[in-house]
User: What shape does this take?
Amino acid sequence: MGRLDGKVAFITGSASGIGRAGAILFAGEGAKVAVIDMSRPGGEETVRMTREAGGDATFIETDVTDPASVERAIAATVSRYGKLNVLYNNAGGSTNIDGLVTEVSIDEWWRAIRLDLFGTFLCCRFGIPELIEAGGGSIVNTTSIVAMVGTAKASYTAAKGGVLALTRSMAVAYGKHNIRVNAVAPGATQTERVKEHLAHDKAAWEHAGKASCRSGRAGRRSSYGAVPGVG
Ligand SMILES: NC(=O)c1ccc[n+]([C@@H]2O[C@H](COP(=O)([O-])OP(=O)(O)OC[C@H]3O[C@@H](n4cnc5c(N)ncnc54)[C@H](O)[C@@H]3O)[C@@H](O)[C@H]2O)c1
Assistant: This one.
């Protein structure tokens, strides 16, 4: 008997990295998982891995920055599995071209705000009515250690700070509907995307681990369960 038996989870950014690890772990605990991502190959691979591990998952191609796309994805999840119990808003990520307020491009600023903050807002906007319809549920938003300590990546730091504030706002507002709202704040974690960023700079990777993790080293596969997607 799993801890999520009978639950339906909507996990964004689950075609790779931490989101994929989450999808496999949630399904392993008995949840039916909607794998929500822009990447069809990655999303289908997550579904394959989840089913191979004995779980139930469906890929729904979605752009979390597009209101119509998110509305369709929520409707498709409810149509496929009959309800929605868990919203895990994980899609996001920083880039190498983010930087100081006085230097970062306007496009990069809006990319981070649109993906990390607006994407989280949209999934909650369209997902919360379904959680209420189900009698309550759980929202997990992925912020980052940068929301607490600050970094020179102004756009990503501001976006994740916004996710943290939005989490608190929703926790207060939707508790009366039996909805718990929490945030997780990973430190540096060795996903494929992050490895690519730091591939040429081992010192920067070690610094990221020391700066953001109490253990002094970056998160690895064992931090999220022994599943592929997190190195
Ligand atoms: N890896 C780290 O060191 C780290 C540290 C702190 C926080 N985080 C956060 O954890 C989350 C996952 O990070 P990760 O390293 O696993 O990233 P990742 O790049 O491996 O996965 C992100 C996924 O989001 C998807 N995605 C991107 N834009 C999308 C969109 N518009 N619509 C739908 N899907 C979209 C990508 O296709 C990808 O599958 C992110 O929110 C990231 O900011 C990561």
Summary: The longest strand covers residues 32-37.
